[in-house]
Structure formats: C-alpha cells, structure tokens
C-alpha cells in the first residue's frame, strides 16, 4: 500500500470515529450525571495532557517515531472508547483518568499526522489527497452526527450511546490494522541538529496569535454544544448542530481556497463581534444554533491565515522533517495553552459562583468575543516583524 493511501484511510477512519462518538462525549458525561464542573475539569485535564504531549514530542519526535506516535494516538483513543463502553455510568467517577487517555490520544495522533502528511504526501499526490480527504470529511460531517444523534435518541437508555461508541471503536481498530505495516517500511533518519527556534523572524508574535486562537477555541468549541444539549436535552439536535458546523466550515474553506488573494482575517474578526450581541440573549436552542453558525463562518479564516503563515515559515526555516515536527509541536503547545487558559477561567467562575447555572454563561461568552482582536493584532505583528527583518537583506543585495 502506498504511504499516501495509508494516510488517507487512517484520516478517514479517525474522522469517522470523531463524528460518530467523540462529538457526543460531553453529552454522554452530562447524561450519566457528571455535572458541569466535572466536565469542565475533564477538558482542562485533556488540554493539559495534550500540551504536555506536544512539549515532549517537540524534543523527542523524529520521522521514524511519527508512525509510533500515530499508533499510540489511535490505540489510546480506542482504549478510551472501550473504557466508556465498559464503565457505562461509572465513567463519571474516572473523568480525570479518561481525560488523560483522550489527551494522549489527540496529542500523539495530530502531531504525527502533521509530520506524516509532509513526509508521505508527495507533490504529485497532494491534489487528490487533499481533495478526497476534504470531500470525505465534509460528507462524514454532514451525515454521521445527525445519524448518531438519531440513534442515541431512538434507542432506550444508554443503548444509543453504546452503539455509536462501538462503531467508533471499530473504526479505530481498523486504523490500527492499516498503520501496522508502516512500522516496517519507515526509513531510519539521522539525529538532526536544530537551529534556535525563536530566532525565526516574527515567530514569537505568531505563537501569541495561536495562543489567542486557543483562547477563542477553548470556549466556543466546548461550551455551545454542551449548552445546547443541556438546554434542549436532545442528542439529535446536537448532531444537527455538529453537521451544520461541518457543512458551513467546509463551504468557507472551499471558498477561501478558490480566492487566495482576499484578506479573510479582518472579516472573521467582524463576524466574531456579532457574537458579542448574540450572547446577551437568553441561551435558547435557536440562539446556540445561530452562535454555532457564526463560529463556523469565522473559524476557517483564522485557521487559514495562521496555519498558512506557520506552514510557510516551518517549511522555510525547518532544516529537516524532524525540525519541522519540532516547530509544529511548539505551535500546538501555544494553541492548546490558550484553550487550557480559557477553560480555567470557566472553572474559576463556577467555583466562585457555585449557584451559577451553565445557561447563565452567556455574558462570559459575549466578552470572549474580543479574543479575535488579539488574534488579528499578533498576526499583523508577526508579519510586520518578518517583513522588517527581510529589508536589510534586500538592501545589502542592492
């Protein structure tokens, strides 16, 4: 099997498992009576684990180890879903341990995926790989969450959750079979010598823009779907919410890919400010669906602007695959640190206001609409520093 085909199948299997099971994880925890604060703590431990995983990988990861990291990530995700199946309602007593499993899984998988995408996807294969991966991800996002929500709603008790978790587990088991032969085909690589990372012009403010993006993501990706489930008590509506976001993001990503000359970041900031007014309304299912649409409209612009800049500099300044993996890990540490901080703010607010109901968090989410301004500011700062550093070199050449 060609490496690019292997990666395509693994990516598809992982996406299926995510849309089938992981997107209903917080709903399951609420369903079994975990409570809002324990769920917030679960995600705090998850992001702490992911941040630590990326930090360790920034020092230890080399191309041969990317296959190991991806295998570990898939395996831990499978163990996580198997634990949910086995524990049932008892999972509420082991949320920190489950968060560590899921954090190790996500951290190992995504860093390995970034590295293997650069290593296994050749220029001749990149067009079909990106096209088919994007198309299948959009299709799965459109079909699987509503189908999972329908199954959860129609089957009695916890049977629906168990079925979607089981299908997700089967998808991950297939991934382990697919990646297994790659252990024997990955060539060895010499230990590299890395230049100092922070001497890349504009790298520090770019990392701060990723921290700001993480601050935004931590609240807007975690809270609205959970609040929607709490308010509506409907897994089916949660599935529709997830499908709507996947569809809107897919359309915006496609539009951005076909209009590369536009400057999407400023439009995304303007869209995000609409949430400032929306969150002062009562958090009804309609308001939360509207918020999900705004988040989905704005997110691709932030993602494209920041990731494109990071990828360009990582490719330009990374001396080899190992150094590029290290730079990628540092970038992921930045974004997950922002996510962690945002959830710590939520936990502090709940601890200091114990009578606060989750559906009263609208004002906090409204104030959080200012974070895209920081994303835009630090991104502009990074580009300016990078351009200024190039001016002396151009002058010397003249």
UniProtKB/TrEMBL annotation:
UniProt lineage: Bacteria, Bacillati, Bacillota, Clostridia, Eubacteriales
Parts of the chain that traverse the membrane: 6-30, 42-61, 67-87, 132-151, 163-184, 219-243, 264-281
Protein name: MFS transporter
Record keywords: Membrane, Transmembrane, Transmembrane helix
């Amino acid at each position: 099997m060609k490496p690019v085909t292997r990666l395509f199948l693994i990516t598809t299997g992982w996406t299926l498992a995510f849309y089938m099971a992981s997107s209903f994880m917080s709903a399951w925890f609420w369903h079994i009576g975990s409570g809002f604060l324990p769920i917030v703590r679960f995600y705090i431990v998850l992001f702490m684990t992911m941040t630590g995983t990326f930090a360790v990988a920034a020092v230890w990861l080399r191309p041969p180890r990317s296959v190991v990291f991806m295998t570990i990530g898939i395996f831990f995700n499978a163990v996580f879903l198997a634990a949910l199946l086995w524990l049932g309602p008892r999972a509420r007593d082991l949320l920190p341990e489950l968060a560590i499993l899921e954090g190790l899984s996500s951290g190992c998988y995504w860093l390995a995926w970034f590295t293997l995408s650069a290593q296994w996807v050749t220029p001749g294969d990149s067009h079909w790989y990106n096209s088919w991966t994007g198309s299948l991800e959009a299709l799965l996002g459109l079909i699987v969450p509503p189908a999972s929500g329908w199954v959860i709603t129609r089957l009695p008790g916890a049977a629906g959750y168990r079925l979607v978790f089981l299908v997700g587990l089967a998808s991950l088991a297939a991934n382990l079979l697919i990646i297994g032969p790659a252990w024997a085909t990955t060539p060895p690589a010499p230990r590299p010598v890395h230049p100092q990372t922070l001497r890349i012009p504009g790298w520090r403010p770019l990392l701060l823009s990723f921290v700001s993006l993480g601050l935004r993501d931590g609240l807007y990706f975690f809270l609205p779907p959970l609040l929607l489930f709490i308010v509506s008590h409907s897994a089916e509506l949660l599935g529709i919410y997830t499908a709507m976001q996947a569809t809107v993001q897919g359309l915006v990503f496609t539009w951005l890919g076909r209009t590369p000359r536009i400057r999407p970041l400023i439009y995304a900031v303007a869209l995000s400010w609409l949430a400032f007014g929306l969150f002062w309304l009562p958090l009804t299912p309609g308001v939360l669906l509207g918020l999900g649409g705004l988040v989905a409209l704005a997110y691709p612009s932030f993602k494209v602007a920041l990731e494109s800049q990071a990828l360009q500099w990582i490719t330009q300044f990374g001396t080899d695959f190992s150094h590029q993996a290290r730079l990628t890990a540092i970038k992921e540490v930045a974004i997950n640190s922002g996510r962690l901080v945002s959830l710590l703010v939520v936990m502090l607010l709940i601890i200091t206001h114990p009578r606060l109901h989750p559906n009263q968090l609208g004002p906090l989410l409204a104030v959080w609409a200012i974070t895209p301004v920081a994303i835009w500011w630090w991104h502009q700062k990074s580009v300016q520093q990078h351009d200024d550093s190039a001016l002396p070199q151009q002058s010397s050449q003249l």
